[in-house]
Design brief:
The chain is of the alpha/beta class. It has five helices and five strands. The protein has a single domain, classed as Rossmann fold (3-Layer(aba) Sandwich). Helix content is 37%, strand content 17%. About 5% of the residues have low confidence.
Length: 130
């Protein structure tokens, strides 16, 4: 039985395809840990995966609040790219002590390469088809 780390942008378009893959792996006896936002907790836990939530304070996938009325909000992805280690460190803290055999992630996931390198595990990019 392998331990698999799933990393997904918290959007329906990214979660749905890899949720199906996670479900199939669990049916085959794999142990899955799945990172997403709280809105996807129920469907992730329903398939038998271990749900982990991104730290809401980091707002990586959310728009930033407008501080100055003339200043446009930065997208969460831009903020994440400016301070990637806050986001990556949060994930690493949450999985401390867990050993993964490989990771599966959505194509738009920004830190898959860094996280898999830090963990020393192979990665599998889930290609989304329309």
């Amino acid at each position: 039985m392998s331990q698999v780390l799933f990393l997904s942008d918290p959007s329906q378009a990214d979660v749905s395809p890899i949720l199906g893959m996670a479900n199939e792996l669990i049916a085959r006896g794999e142990k899955v840990t799945f990172f997403s936002s709280d809105e996807f907790k129920a469907p992730i836990e329903q398939i038998g995966a271990d749900f982990k939530a991104y730290n809401q304070e980091l707002s990586v996938f959310q728009g930033q609040k407008v501080v100055d009325e003339e200043e446009k909000p930065k997208s969460g992805l831009i903020s994440a790219l400016l301070e990637p280690m806050k986001f990556i460190d949060d994930i690493l803290v949450q999985i401390r002590g867990l050993k993964f055999d490989y990771a599966v992630f959505s194509p738009s996931y920004p830190y898959a390469n860094i996280i898999t390198q830090l963990l020393g595990i192979p990665k599998t990019e889930q290609v989304l088809h329309n």
